[in-house]
Design goal:
single chain, 581 residues, alpha/beta, globular, binds 2'-deoxyguanosine-5'-triphosphate, binds calcium ion
Amino acid sequence: MTDVPMHNSEIAGLFDELADLLEIQGANAFRLRAYRNASRTIGSLPESIAELAQDGSKALQAIQGIGKDLAEKIVTIVETGELPQLEELREQVPTGVVMMLRIPGIGPKKVAAIFNELGVTTLDELREAAEQGQIAKLKGFGAKTATTILEGLDQVEQSAQRVYHADARPIVEQIVAALTELDEVTQVSVAGSFRRCRETIGDLDVLATATDSARVMDTLAEHPLVEKVLARGETKQRVRLSPLFDGIKKLELDLRVVPDESYGAAMQYFTGSKEHNIVVRKRAQEQGLKVNEYGVYRGDEYIAGASEEDVYAALGLPFIAPELREDRREFDLAAAGTLPELVTVDDIQGDLHMHTTATDGQASILEMAEAARARGLKYIAITDHSKRVTMANGLDADRLRAHWKNIDKARAQISGIEILCGIECDILEDATMDLPDDVLAEADWVVAVLHYGLKQPRDQINKRLLNAIRNPHVSVIGHPSGRVIGKRSGADISFPEMFQAAADHGCMMEINAHRSRLDLNDVHAAAAKDFGIPIVISTDAHSVHGFAELQNGVNQARRAGLSADDVANTRDLSDFRKMIR
Ligand code: DGT
Ligand code: CA
Ligand code: CA
């Protein structure tokens, strides 16, 4: 058994959990902030904290924001896999109570009141208490809070079960790599929703072909990321993985070892989606064929199954990219011979949404540009926040103009990458822009966004978006819905109206690539393409590591059926500039 060091994200998750638990217990804000900042720092560091910790707590203290106390805690975590203080808190505060923190609009103080005064310890009990009017009666709560809780509960219960695709990726990659190394293994692949690149993953599905299936299953069972074997058969195993981030989400993984001649059929079957497979099976039946996870058959005769291409070909279909397999329009496109060649991350030449230390980013203009260039990008737009976002030290007109001067200076200091002077400008609640038109007119690139008042009625949301779209200085609508996956639903938008206006006025639409946003989503991005609106995939990077999010946005674009041509920032800068109105 190899010793895989703890992921930074796992360690970060423990500090988040610590802060949550302490907050419910009413700990002072200063301590909480220290733990939350530590979590953020650790989560965004490129080097392995676990490896640094092997040199002792002194090495860790060299990291900005990590003091003696934190450093010692990290060493304990890395050496023992746990933190005694956290174990104690977990015993004092039930998991169900911690989960209440995820209900939008319900902070730790309210959670503490629910726990201490009503003795409510699970989400089910909370629902009951809200439905029976006990919540509304609590001091400082009222009927409105009870409603907020009931609405939020549905969301929390769903999201608690699912993990962001990008969070699952490093985990499943390690496991696949460990299995691939075995001599007895010939092929390993991930199937299921992970392969289809859904924005969240319920569980992982891994397929392998091997000369010795017991050896494959033993290896998985002993993998450091596997916490428990839940079930094991001759060729099938289900395991629970170590907690990912917050001690709540534990991914489970199904491993299936299949014969060579069934590998393609199994990949096809277990990649899904269920809805896609139903159509595939119906198609087979219409041709007098049968398709299952073992192969394609005519009567008892095996026709195909070794590769997915063979399986689709046997049914008279071209290969359909996994991202498109949702029974949306993939079969129509296949029939018409117009399945798109999907955009890839290598097609992307520019990143048009990012932050620097001028507002809430962690790196300077030049550092961001260097990091972008190192990733092969040819141009970026620096888009710091406008003044309404006081929390992020948003820029007013004077500071913005000074910032743009600094961008000009940075431009002169770096070659091989172009930097556009941009701004992420809030569309205010009253539907005006946060900065005057004469300022916006000076920008190379304006990302207009909703941050506040997301819960306004549809009419007002529409008015805000349409005003922004009609503003000739606005280049793109950033994260249009404002949702945070599993945590906050987006604004109530009339998408057809918004897209029609964007198409009429030459305003682009963003797919924000951050794992928790992915906004536009797949369905809406496909609709935007139908309107002929150029899509921009941008990372919204807040540090030099943020560029890695690009893959998530590209995944979402692929699920929307976008080709490189549909994505504006696949063009070189001169062609891209021509597309900015
Ligand atoms: P998830 O895990 O909720 O994110 O979504 P999936 O799509 O990975 O679903 P999962 O893990 O339940 O099953 C993996 C694939 O196996 C699924 O996409 C299609 C296939 N599959 C599973 N159960 C059925 C079934 O009852 N009928 C059909 N046709 N296919 C199934
Ligand atoms: Ca799955
Ligand atoms: Ca599964």
